[in-house]
From TrEMBL:
Gene3D superfamilies: Trypsin Inhibitor V, subunit A. Keywords: Protease inhibitor, Serine protease inhibitor, Signal. Pfam families: potato_inhibit. Belongs to the protease inhibitor I13 (potato type I serine protease inhibitor) family. The keyword RNA-binding does not apply. This is Wound-induced proteinase inhibitor 1-like. PANTHER family: OS08G0441300 PROTEIN, PROTEIN, PUTATIVE, EXPRESSED-RELATED. Residues 1-23 form the signal peptide. SUPFAM superfamilies: CI-2 family of serine protease inhibitors. It comes from Solanum pennellii.
């Protein structure tokens, strides 16, 4: 009985140490959004190129949103966070970096 109680306490302490994953809103960091929008306007690729609001969103939903917002993007490789990726750049590709739960953990960007 005491061992089960100890396991429950340890579980809750571990659970409290993790941050919850939430989608970011424009109100969470307007200065970051502004910088990203300025960078977009100076780029040679067409359309929207950064989606900071998609952090914490399921990967499949993020893909659908990006397709709607920039029709020139047609490649969506899904990459597990921490995996190596090639260094080449394409205006038609957005890598979706997710975790084992299938949630976007890095800002999706044209890469």
């Amino acid at each position: 009985m005491e061992a089960k109680f100890a396991h429950i306490i340890v579980f809750f302490l571990l659970a409290l140490s993790f941050e919850t994953l939430m989608a970011r809103k424009e109100s969470d960091g307007p200065e970051v959004i502004k910088l990203l929008k300025e960078f977009e306007s100076e780029s040679w690729c067409k359309g929207k190129q950064f989606w900071p609001e998609l952090i914490g969103v399921p990967t499949k939903l993020a893909k659908e949103i990006i397709e709607k917002e920039n029709s020139s993007i047609n490649e969506f490789p899904i990459v597990l966070n921490g995996s190596p990726v090639p260094a080449d750049f394409r205006c038609t590709r957005v890598r979706l970096i997710d975790n084992i739960l299938g949630v976007v953990v890095q800002i999706p960007r044209v890469a």
